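Course assignment 3, question 2. Fill in each field.
Student: A.L.
Task: Predict the tertiary structure for the chain below.
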Amino acid sequence: MRKTVLALAIVLLLAGLAIIQQFATAETAALPTEEAPKIGYLAPSFELKTLDGGTLGIGRGEREKPVIVNFWASWCDPCRMEAPILSDLYEKYKDRLDIYGVNGLEYDEMASVQAFVKQYKYEFPTLLDEKSVAFKLYQVPGYPTSFFVDRHGVVRDIVIGLPGHEEFERRLKKLLES
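Answer field:
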């Protein structure tokens, strides 16, 4: 009797492991392998200097949190309108989401960037795209443009221009659910 119970327990354990492996393999197999600045592809990898002197970027592999990569410039009027929205949403969701503000420094001035970040109370990292490396990789059509990237590094949404607070938050929530 004991041998039968032990054998049954082993069979159930092995069956459970097989099911778990099946689901894990299915999730991994569904992830894209190609990088492109398009929905459904891995976000292009880059690394840039930050305003505070560090380096930060997007790389291949799992992330702890999803990230919004927002391209902006201090002279951009829609970016000025979007800035309070980003600050507010970051404050509200920073435990579950990262925001990287990528400034097109090649076409901006450092003093203006610093003043913008201070004025709009950006608490999230500001990355400095001094030679438009990320701008070109992401084929940014203009400022502001935001790429919504999930924990797996996959682009899930792209916002070009200024959608408004409610629409931006709706898209952000959809990213958090993915």
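Instructor remarks: Confidence is low (pLDDT under 50) at residues 5-19, 23-28. Residues 101 and 167 are 19 Å apart (CA to CA).
Grade: pending
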